[in-house]
Amino acid sequence: MKLLFVALLSLAGSAFGTEQVRIALGKTTDALSVEWHTENTQGGTPTVRWGTQNGSLIHSATGDSRKFTVDAGRVWYSHVAVMSGLSVNTEYYYQVGDSSTGFSQVFKVMNRRTRPAGQPYRHILMGDMGSSCAFTLCTACTQHSYTCDKTTCAKNTSVGLVSETDADMILQVGDFAYNLGTNNGTVGDQFFKNIEQIAAWTPYMVSHGNHEDDATDLAHYIESWRNMPTNSVPATFKSANGEGAPNSLYFSWDHGLVHYVAMSTELWFGVTDGNTTVASLLAWLKVDLEKANKNREAVPWIVVHGHRSIYCSCDGDCHADARKVRKEMEPILFDYGVDFFINGHEHNYERMWPTYKDKSDQSNVNPRAPIYVVTGAAGSQEMHEPFIFPQPSWSAFRSNSFSYSRMFVYNATHIHWQQVQTD
């Protein structure tokens, strides 16, 4: 996106202990994967402790640590540990750390809440939220500071993402921090400190955005989301930080009644390590969607998400990018009966009617094609994205306000969508 606003801000680098905690859904329903950062290891063993009672964290697991050396003048470590053997619909208390750098506060998370009949699963979706200007995180976030953490937001937790305490899952479809590698990575540090107040308590899932395309920012993305339940082919991705990290440019998971597929639209715009390419994504995607369709009785909905649009109508920039991705993606989404494609990139909200080849029935009842949704208005220093072009017939609703999405999944036939405006 073209830069519209620059915050004249700075963050001083400083030593830090156990912080930036976030949790993700595991590869199986009895697992949750947690990631955190430290400035050093000093011989400590990264550990997650958990239990069903606060003060009685009787289970533990050792984590995996990776050294990050891409930021100029500093080194830090990411740690990932998996809580396993968990019961569904059960709350767990947990903390992470080691004997050297210390342990985090105790957090609480629900593993795979089971909703009673008539009560929907609650999924929160948004894109393009920075460290500064994170206007959907809470009302106290401003353009004047990168810091919008728990202390900042404590004044009002009744609105914004901090109010979504009943969410089953949060999904950000790319563009984190603006940028993860800015100021030698300290802006990325602050982003993870900011979202800890939601991401350590509710599974926080992601897909890759264009602000993670630069070699340094891409390395940050790959290393900072190692806790995703990756199942891609190839399994690892080589970044500027080296080999061996899980490949989070495309992967999939199930949550409740929804099969989610994360994909990097940035593969169409030059991102690759030589092995992960558009071709490898498309080959993997067809296999994944074939398997998902065979499991429709148990998991009836399929949601694919990435960063750039396949359909959008705000300006020529969005049209050009969308056409590039649409050429290969639209037939696959249609042929495999994908229900939704969710993306960000455009800093606005636009919901399309079920659409195929620029045509729509203008009805969401028994849709015959995917519904495309742009929800890239969570708040960044680039501010709003105006709608320059007239609204086409396949565009159902457009809004140029800061906002995020709620997707209520009731059953195999009904989903209710809400867009929550925060300005």
**Rg for CA atoms:** 20 Å
Please give the number of β-strands: 26
Structural class: alpha+beta
Inertia-based shape? globular
Average per-residue pLDDT, rounded, comes to 94
Which regions contain 5 or more consecutive residues with pLDDT less than 50? 1-8
- Please state roughly what percent of the residues sit in beta strands, choosing from under 5%, 5-15%, 15-25%, 25-35%, 35-45% or over 45%: 25-35%
Profile the largest sheet.
8 strands, mixed
Name the quaternary structure. single chain
* Approximate helicity band: 10-25%
Number of helices: 5
The span between the termini is 21 Å
Name a few traits of the molecule.
423 residues; alpha+beta; 8-stranded mixed sheet; 5-stranded antiparallel sheet; 5 helices; 26 strands; disordered N terminus
Describe the structure.
With 423 residues, the protein is an alpha+beta fold. Strands 17, 18, 19, 20, 21, 22, 23 and 24 form an eight-stranded mixed β-sheet that branches. Strands 3, 4, 7, 8 and 9 form a five-stranded antiparallel β-sheet that branches. β19, α5 and β20 form a beta-alpha-beta unit. It is globular, with a radius of gyration of 20 Å.
Summarize the topology:
Layout lengths: L18 E7 L6 E7 L8 E5 L7 E4 L1 E5 L7 E8 L6 E9 L3 E2 L3 E5 L9 E6 L2 E2 L19 H4 L15 E4 L3 E2 L8 H14 L4 E3 L8 H10 L11 E4 L2 E5 L3 E6 L2 E6 L14 H17 L6 E5 L10 H20 L4 E4 L5 E8 L2 E2 L10 E5 L19 E5 L3 E7 L5 E7 L2
Parallel strand pairs: 10-12, 11-13, 12-14, 18-19, 19-20, 20-23
Antiparallel strand pairs: 1-2, 2-6, 3-4, 3-7, 5-6, 7-8, 7-9, 10-25, 15-16, 17-18, 21-22, 21-23, 21-24, 25-26
